[in-house]
């Protein structure tokens, strides 16, 4: 490690570095499954890095490494001391360190994905850590969740409602979820996925690659 | 007291401290720490060993920093803004600017290494030091912090803390006090989270330690001063304290090898 | 309950209570040490041992300067034992031992019995200064230091190595005799190689508020360390013992135990793991588990 001489984050406009994408949401909603899907789909065309914030040791990182969707060394795990939301919102130092370590080792990267530890509806990423964030819900929590709002649901750049394959089983009405989400989110997009049925998460991957494209246009490496 | 000390000692300083338990997580797992009285014994032991050591080394770093004149970093139109194009070129281990092995920062860092027998503790100290240095360079830009980052990119935590405190305008003894407090406040918070202890009872415990904190900081600073007899004389490195705590070493290595853990250390 | 401290070969020989009279030169009856364990004045003693290289390349113990109570006896071609010829050290004693191992020579230094530190007037001090030359070998494995109730002791070790020196340095401290609260002891250990620090450590025994802290000694009644110049490949930890590869080079084996026998076996396990692991990992069968763990 030791990225102190490489303080890209000091550049407030983020010039010359990868897009940092936060993936947050409640426990078990499918964040890791989505990250794996994004690596699978975008890996061939983009240079990627992943940081996981596990609650216990390195479970998510190990899952991703085993899944073989990305070189194992491009996946770093951050321990969060019982406070997953602190690590992505209030004290982002360890996550920034991990992101910059990846950029230092494998850069230039196009995209670094930071998966938060499973938390509750109030957890969001600091803008100092993530340029864009996806909030992942699943239908099994019931179709009332978007109505409850919370910063994740309301302000995330993309809301993903996952596990639509389970909707009939839990009696969740996707139409209601879409309507409630639109009410609190205004123009911000919402996508419904079943990573079980589409392991490429094609719609989300499209959204992400479009964001990466936009980022690289406005934040191209300065010629020095 | 310099008000900057409040910022430096605040557990909300975003420098990654919240993810370190200072051995408490493993002590809780083993049952050695299980309630407020056993936490109190743990913290007392920690304060007078690892805490006293950290305080002395922090004070030493602050003293050493005060031999280097402070000048604000050139490009600080607005705190923390620095165009990456103007940043000095990235150097591996500082290739330029003479022999960095002779840099007093490298030597002080070696001295911390020699006083930290457990590899897991060295790693935890360097991780926290690196994160603190990163934060401090943005919050209190100064040439001495830049110099430290150049010669020792991931310094031990006491070094980063001492230099950060100096850059913020605190005295070496105040820096020692911050180090002593850091040695018990993080573990105390971790114990609250791990054991569901009454946070007020734990804060009462911390309050009861305040005379010890003052004493530890004063002694640590005294020891550090005797290691730096005068600015023009070479430091007497062996005069710096070297307190160790065998149980903390064992806990640190057990933690590093644990299958399941919540905290980095 | 911890069993009484004993050496690895059975019981440790505690110095005879009448030992104070054995000393020549400085016997006198001022001050009472340990309630009748003998009366004598505080002593200053400076002993030394040095090796040299013979023309045919063998080690010669060239200098052996005893100073009661530090009496040195050569017990093998390159083996020397400390023979305690008096009780103590007692409070007020200042003892020093110089060890000089010339380049490419070997010295093994042990003691025939444990050292029982007794109270007296003021603080006692044992200062060991050792220089180990390039390519030389030193094994320092004395019997434990036992801190009797009421003692106040300082144990200072300064070890200066030249490159390629090979050292094993063991230190064991027992917190009082059986069922006894220990006196105070402050131990400091510094090892440098070519002027750069390898390990610097100090600790204090005998402050009840700190000794039993789960961060310091916990329930242990003995603490021990072995410093080795061999560098273990990785950190190891077992019940009450850790093998700690140092940052520069070398290894510290650090152990806590209920009694001296357990302490010795933990340290020896760590020493073996450190040296074998560092030199040839394959030769060492078991890395998992530890002393007392099947
Ligand atoms: N039925 C169904 N199961 C899914 C879907 N996506 C993920 N899962 C399963 O849901 C479980 C949790 O998925 P993860 O990806 O680990 O969820 P997570 O949000 O990363 O969980 P934490 O990191 O523990 O908060 C796993 O068993 C996945 O296989 C989906 O679309 N449909
Ligand atoms: Mg996950």
UniProtKB/TrEMBL annotation, chain A:
Lineage top rank: taxon: Bacteria
Residue intervals of the CobW/HypB/UreG nucleotide-binding domain: 22-191
Location of this chain's protein in the cell: Cytoplasm
Keyword Chaperone annotated: yes
GO CC terms of this entry: cytoplasm
Keyword GTP-binding listed: yes
Amino acid composition bias (Basic and acidic residues), ranges on this chain: 1-16
Molecular-function annotations in GO: GTP binding; GTPase activity; nickel cation binding
Residue sites binding GTP per the record: 25-32
Disordered: region residues: 1-20
UniProt keyword list: Chaperone, Cytoplasm, GTP-binding, Nickel insertion, Nucleotide-binding
Any Gene Ontology biological process: urea catabolic process
Complexes and interactors: Homodimer. UreD, UreF and UreG form a complex that acts as a GTP-hydrolysis-dependent molecular chaperone, activating the urease apoprotein by helping to assemble the nickel containing metallocenter of UreC. The UreE protein probably delivers the nickel.
NCBIfam families: ureG (TIGR00101)
Family: Belongs to the SIMIBI class G3E GTPase family. UreG subfamily.
Function: Facilitates the functional incorporation of the urease nickel metallocenter. This process requires GTP hydrolysis, probably effectuated by UreG.
Name listed for the protein in its UniProt record: Urease accessory protein UreG
From TrEMBL, chain B:
Gene3D superfamilies: Urease accessory protein UreF
Alphabetical keyword list: Chaperone, Cytoplasm, Nickel insertion
Alphabetized InterPro entries for the sequence: UreF (IPR002639), UreF_sf (IPR038277)
Keyword Acetylation: no
Compartments in which it is found: Cytoplasm
One Pfam short name: UreF
MF annotations from Gene Ontology: nickel cation binding
Cellular component, GO, one term: cytoplasm
Region called Disordered, residue ranges: 71-105
Function per UniProt: Required for maturation of urease via the functional incorporation of the urease nickel metallocenter.
Family: Belongs to the UreF family.
Oligomeric form and interacting partners: UreD, UreF and UreG form a complex that acts as a GTP-hydrolysis-dependent molecular chaperone, activating the urease apoprotein by helping to assemble the nickel containing metallocenter of UreC. The UreE protein probably delivers the nickel.
Name of this chain's protein: Urease accessory protein UreF
Organism: Nonomuraea turkmeniaca
Gene from which the chain derives: ureF
